[in-house]
Amino acid sequence: MRRTRTVTITAAGRDSGKQFLLTEMSAAEAEEIAIRVLGPRFPDAVMTYGMAGVAILGIPAIYAMPYDEARPLWDRIMACVRPVGTLSAPAPISADDAIEEVTTRIQLRMEVLELHLGFSLADARRVLSDMVPTAPATTENMQTSQDPSESASAAS
Hints:
mainly alpha, 3 strands, about 160 residues, elongated, 3-stranded antiparallel sheet
């Protein structure tokens, strides 16, 4: 059964208080989007870092794509979003008709991605940072600029 989540917009603006139902797309469709975004890096990202790797590599990649390539992918992601109405205010037919703020679209896109990943994007960053060893951040014995006496002797 597909996961769903109801999101209430809390930010100030014309969308404040509106609710949207997010529904997970099929695994096949999600995989197709990931492959189109990551290309040949997709299998390595999944096998090495799991869905956290797909998130961290994929989101910047889709934003870096030419608009004509990214638009159909964003449209498929936004197809997971449906406005929720009330008895006194029926929902518009589509999310495009219901959403009045760009920030709401961005928030809902991120919420859809998090629904598919099963965790937040902040959690993905933490998971990856725990998996990837880093060098200790020290400045001891690190020369960041030339010593003035060295530049004087080099000039003579």
